[in-house]
Amino acid sequence: MxxxxxxxxxxxxxxxxxxxxxxxxxxxxxxxxxxxYEDHTGWCFGxxxxxxxxxxxxxxxxxxxxxxxxxxxxxxxxxxxxxxxxxxxxxxxxxxxxKKKATP
Length: 104
Fold this sequence. Notes:
By secondary structure, this protein is α+β, with helices and mostly antiparallel strands.
């Protein structure tokens, strides 16, 4: 098991995608295989990345730090708007999963 480190250590990234998490370890990518997107922002409910960011993760590693810097604020914003985020987004249904309720 990788050694756990705290926020601020150089060369490490988040383990989980929970807003406010301070547990870090090296990761391949922030994607947690939820891959459902908010309609207006295009942010993934699972990891916070957009589709173009997910595509560029492998092809353009020089952008990874910029992508990572945006993920937590995005997930916090999605959660504040009432959406389930991170692993919880994989279990959410209805409005919490980003689906709008049908109006009669």
